[in-house]
Amino acid sequence: MKVKKEYLILTGVMAALILYLVLHRSDRTHYKLPDITRVSGKQISKLEIGKADKTLVLNKKDNTWYIDPKGYPADSDKVKSMIDVIEKLTLTALVSESKNYVRYDLTHDKKITVKAWNGKTLSREFDIGKAANTYQHTFVRLATDFNVYHARGDFRRKFDQTVDELRDKTVLSYTQKHIRELTLTKDKKTITLTQKQISEQEGKKKDIPDKTSEKPETTIVWQDADGKKVDKERINSLLSFLNRLQCETYITDEKKDDLKNPTYAVVVKGDKEYSLSVFAKKEKDAKTYPAISSENEYPFLLSNSQMDTIKTKIHELLEVKEK
After folding, report:
1. pTM, 2 dp
2. Rounded to 10 degrees, what is the CA torsion of 158, 159, 163, 165?
3. What's the Cα-to-Cα distance from 33 to each of 39, 92, 112, 189, rounded to whole Å?
4. How far apart are CA 39 and CA 280, in angstroms?
């Protein structure tokens, strides 16, 4: 009888403990995350990225993003990264209901406010704080909700951009396989190199009949104006370096026409003509060179290291030819 009584007491204690654990866990997780309507990234046509008292506005026109009010072309990869976050924004946990935003960098001077439009319709609005300690989540607050939530991913830096950082830095781009002519100028020295296809039979005695009926094989060579061959690998190296060339930054207080008398100039011809002109440094100790390109409306700066490479490759072609 005594054993049976102790068994009942033990059973009751275990039942109470289980009930306590269930209720305690329920108290901690008894909330529902807000439902976020999915936004199609392809339909987003305008973005506003606000921080403190500054707002950066981007508009899409003909599938290209531009930065207002100057209309600078934006870096398409960086814009795509932001749109991916907006499109796939996912809340994973409620963090705080206290309205104390300091510890999450969601105060006015620290937060980044993101707004995305589809035409005239505001499709998404939320505030971005700092990354969580695990760097797998970011603290966010929705426009219509005072609570702080975890959003999946560490993405604040994708939106923490200046106008200059967000501009497309590509200043020269072409399809290299289409290039057939290259003109190089250093000061007053110029050389024009032309691509030509020649038969492997070329150069052999004409009185020796070709006994094969097959079409003769051809090879591609580069020649100067005198018909002398030039190292093809060096030309390809220069063309490869200049293709998709990116500047350090843009010059904002001058126009292209303000820059005169380039020290170095490159003109390449393929499906159309492309050109790059580089000018002397503004100051002797400057770490950049002013430059302009046919493929960009704005003057820009190239770094010392970029120019060291360009100068070396140009000098090789100006001074060394195959014999």
Report:
1. 0.80
2. -20
3. 18, 8, 22, 70
4. 49
